[in-house]
């Protein structure tokens, strides 16, 4: 009996079939099937019922599965213990970012970590704030750069990178351009430009409107705040953007009041802790890298 056979067996069960298991394992499907048949011959019992479209555990397979998982976990634990002892990091980590993460120098962050720990595979996913928050909570992501309002999402620890007021950005020919502030209720009469649903700023706007009994009229949606600002500068509506996004020569930023809106961009990781030494090292690396960004942003 080989660890490879146990790994193939567990992967077939987890992935719900031989084809998906082979893709995840990066091996040919016949190789997965052959190893499973050999394991079954050694044990003297079929582990999977292959008569349906999806293989299902037999009684023997159900008995073997938790023991196979335990054996694989024990081997990984032994490898991790040795790695920690020698200071060698291996494994994989996954980070998620917002579409408009360019100013945060994520490429430098990833490159620096890769150079320090070449044995760790790092993956990057771009998505909206809601999807990233779920990914961190459920364990698909070790770390994410998210946006949120006044409350930290449940189940997460965060390190704030930027905290900004959200403003109504308009072109200089807009009636609001001569004002310093505007009540949120007054914006219900205007064509608004905002992130799509699920984005951090959009969630803040939607929640504030719901609390105030306001029905916003969103006419343009884009995932990049810079595009929102461009549309507003051309007179196509009122963009809801961070105050820094309205600091342009062709825009005028108007404070939103009653209520005031603000949002945070932050690094987020599971409050219960990361899954291993590689993930812990990556979280600490990212926190240190973006502490420097936060300091530079505060001084600018």
TrEMBL record:
Pfam families per record: HTH_1 (PF00126), LysR_substrate (PF03466)
Protein's name according to its UniProt entry: LysR family transcriptional regulator
CDD domains: PBP2_LTTR_like_3 (cd08436)
Record SUPFAM superfamilies: Periplasmic binding protein-like II, Winged helix' DNA-binding domain
Domain HTH lysR-type: start-end pairs: 1-58
Keyword Transcription regulation in annotation: yes
An MF annotation (GO) of this entry: DNA-binding transcription factor activity
Keywords on record: DNA-binding, Transcription, Transcription regulation
Matching InterPro entries: LysR_HTH_N, LysR_subst-bd, WH-like_DNA-bd_sf, WH_DNA-bd_sf
GO annotation, cellular component aspect: protein-DNA complex
PROSITE patterns for this protein: HTH_LYSR
Family: Belongs to the LysR transcriptional regulatory family.
Entry keyword DNA-binding: yes
